[in-house]
């Protein structure tokens, strides 16, 4: 059905070169539409404007549509809320960590090795050491200047650990580094309750530092992956097979192509890539 629709639209356009048909006049197939990207786009980005133009006719015709984002973002809730307001709530906006990984996560243990030595409901309430040469604080460029990172250095001023906080001052991610090289060797993701739910382990090599393996501490037990894309592909696969409706999954940037086009494609799902710029 979808192939026939595409064929007819192309033939119709070729037969009538003077007629510029807009999406609002197109009889869109009855299917679910998914737009796949890395980050939640900001309000002033070209991608946001492009999405808004494409989502409106789908919403007007009551077609199910959703934006799927695949990157980790400490402030994804706020970014999703902002985009929802920009797009006038015409689309569901989902993130693989927020809407797939976290709901199924259990806990390895509670994180307790805070750089400043204690735990706070919000790090923004803490008094930062002023003359501590081994601790450096980076803040978000927001009116209230909330803390973004707390970096810990050794006596030789080499970075050994970084704690990342969201705008509310809640610890979200901890990264550990090889002191003499600065290479990342461990990444721990932490939920709102302060528990580690995922750890990503790297070789700690300065030149090539691919993921060695990932431990996801699910409610049902530990699940191990060897690549970050494995988890993202599992989420996309689960969306493909959640019902029998026809689906069109569109990648919005080249970095996401590998997540979509290398998974098993069911007969009810079609893949596409939207080219925003010439390559």
Q: What would your notes on this structure say?
A:
It contains six helices and 13 strands. By secondary structure, it is an alpha/beta fold. α6 (about 255-260) links the parallel β12 and β13. The protein folds into two domains: about 30-105 and about 230-275, 3-Layer(aba) Sandwich (Rossmann fold), CATH 3.40.50.2000; about 125-220. Keywords: Glycosyltransferase, Transferase. This is Poly(Glycerol-phosphate) alpha-glucosyltransferase. Pfam families: Glyco_trans_A_1 (PF09318).
CATH superfamily of the largest domain: Glycogen Phosphorylase B
Terminal CA distance reads 30 Å
Rg from C-alpha positions?
22 Å
CATH domain class name of the largest domain: Alpha Beta
The low-pLDDT segments are: 5-22
Largest sheet: 8 strands, antiparallel
Helix content: 10-25%
Number of domains: 2
Number of helices: 6
Shape: globular
CATH architecture of the largest domain: 3-Layer(aba) Sandwich
Give the strand order of the largest sheet, numbering strands 1, 2, ... along the chain: 4-5-6-7-8-9-10-11
The SSE string, one letter per element, is HEHEHEHEEEEEEEEHEHE
In the CATH hierarchy, the third-tier topology of the largest domain is known as: Rossmann fold
> How large a portion of the residues is in β-strands, by DSSP E?
25-35%
Q: Kindly report the average pLDDT value.
A: 85
Count all strands and give the number: 13
Protein name: Poly(Glycerol-phosphate) alpha-glucosyltransferase
GO molecular function, one term: poly(glycerol-phosphate) alpha-glucosyltransferase activity
Domain Glycosyl transferase: 34-217
Pfam families: Glyco_trans_A_1 (PF09318)
């Amino acid at each position: 059905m979808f192939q026939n629709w595409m064929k007819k639209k192309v033939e119709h356009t070729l037969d009538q070169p003077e007629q510029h048909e807009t999406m609002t006049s197109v009889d869109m197939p009855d299917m679910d539409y998914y737009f796949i990207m890395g980050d939640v786009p900001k309000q002033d980005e070209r991608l946001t404007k492009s999405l808004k133009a494409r989502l409106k006719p789908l919403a007007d015709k009551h077609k199910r549509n959703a934006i799927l984002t695949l990157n980790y973002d400490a402030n994804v809730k706020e970014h999703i809320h902002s985009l929802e307001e920009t797009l006038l709530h015409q689309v569901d906006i989902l993130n693989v960590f927020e809407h797939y990984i976290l709901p199924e996560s259990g806990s390895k243990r509670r994180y307790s090795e805070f750089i400043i030595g204690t735990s706070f409901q919000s790090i923004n309430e803490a008094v930062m050491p002023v003359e501590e040469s081994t601790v450096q604080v980076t803040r978000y460029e927001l009116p209230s200047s909330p803390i973004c990172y707390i970096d810990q250095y050794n006596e030789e001023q080499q970075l050994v650990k970084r704690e990342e906080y969201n705008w509310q001052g809640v610890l979200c991610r901890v990264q550990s580094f090889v002191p003499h090289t600065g290479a990342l060797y461990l990444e721990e993701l932490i939920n709102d309750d302060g528990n580690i739910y995922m750890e990503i382990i790297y070789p700690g090599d300065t030149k090539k530092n691919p993921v060695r393996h990932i431990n996801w501490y699910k409610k049902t037990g530990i699940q191990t992956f060897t690549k970050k894309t494995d988890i993202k592909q599992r989420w996309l696969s689960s969306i493909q097979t959640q019902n029998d409706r026809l689906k069109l999954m569109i990648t919005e940037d080249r970095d996401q192509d590998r997540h979509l086009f290398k998974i098993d494609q069911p007969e009810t799902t079609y893949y596409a890539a939207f080219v925003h710029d010439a390559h």
